[in-house]
Amino acid sequence: MRTKNGAKHVHRGALLVRKQDNSNVTANQSATLASLPTTRREILTTLKERGGARAEELATALGITVSAIRQHLAALDAGGLVSHRELKGGPGRPKFIFHLTAAAEALFPQAYSELANDLLDIVRGEDPGMADRVLQRLAERNLGFTRNRLRGQGYAERLNSLVSVLDERGFLPRLETHEDGSFTLTMHNCPVLAVATNFQGICDGEVGVLQSVLPEVELTQCTRMREGSHACEFRGAPRRK
C-alpha cells in the first residue's frame, strides 16, 4: 500500500501497537516487567523465585483460582514469556511445570550495560587504543553474522532480511521503500544505547555493517539516539552509475 510520502512499502519488524491495558505485550515488543498486568507480573516473579512451578502451586501462592492462573499462563506462553514441560509419572491428568523463557528472564533488572561500560573504561585506561580495537572486532563479528544470513540474496530480499536481523537484535526497525528506489530505515530502539553513549565506536560499527551489506546504496544517517533523538534514522539512495 502506498503511503502519503510516496512510499510503496512499509516493513515495521516488531514495531507493533500495544493495547492500552498492555495485556497483549509479547517478548518481541521490548516489554518491561512493570508494563505487564499485575497478576502476570506476579506469576513471572514467582516463577523467577522458585525456578518453576505448576499451575496449582501458582494458584496457592497468589491466592487465585487454578482456572484463572491457567488463563494467564496461556497468555504468557503465547507471548513467549513462559514455557512448560510435562512431569512424567503419576495417575490422572498430565501435569505440567512452567518456567520462564530467556525473554522473560531479560525483563528482570540486568546490569550488562554498566558492566560493559566499566570493562571498556578499564581497557581504555590501560591502553587507549585497545577499546577501539575491541569494538572494531565486535563490528567484524556482527558483519560476518549478518553476511551469512543475507548470503545469496538479491538487493530487495537482502534489504528486507536486514530488517529482520535488526528486529531480532532488538532495534525495532521500520523500513519505508520509495518509488525512486531510495528507502528510509528508522530504528526506534537501541539495545546498546547505554554503552554507545560513552563509546561512539559501537555506533560506527553498526553503520559499517549496514553499509557493507548494502553496497548498492549511499547510506546517510540523519538522526542519532546517542545525540538525543528519539530514533536513529538512515536514508539510502541508489549509487549513481
Verbal overview:
The chain has helices spanning 38-50, 55-62, 66-78, 102-105, 112-126, 128-150, 155-168, 193-196, 200-213; strands at residues 7-11, 82-87, 95-100, 173-178, 183-187, 217-223, 232-238. Strand 2 (82-87) and strand 3 (95-100) form a beta hairpin. It has a 5-stranded antiparallel β-sheet, covered by helices on one side. It has a two-stranded antiparallel ribbon with strand order 2-3. The chain contains 9 helices and 7 strands, in the order βαααββααααββααββ. The protein has 2 domains: 27-105, Arc Repressor Mutant, subunit A, CATH 1.10.10; 111-238, Trafficking protein particle complex subunit 3 (Muramoyl-pentapeptide Carboxypeptidase, domain 2, 2-Layer Sandwich), CATH 3.30.1380.
Binned, the helix content reads: 40-55%
Biggest sheet, open or closed, and with what strands and sense? 5 strands, antiparallel
CATH topology of the largest domain: Muramoyl-pentapeptide Carboxypeptidase, domain 2
Fourth-tier CATH superfamily name of the largest domain? Trafficking protein particle complex subunit 3
**Radius of gyration in whole Å, from Cα?**
22 Å
State mean pLDDT (0 to 100 scale).
85
Shape, principal axes of CA atoms = elongated
Number of helices: 9
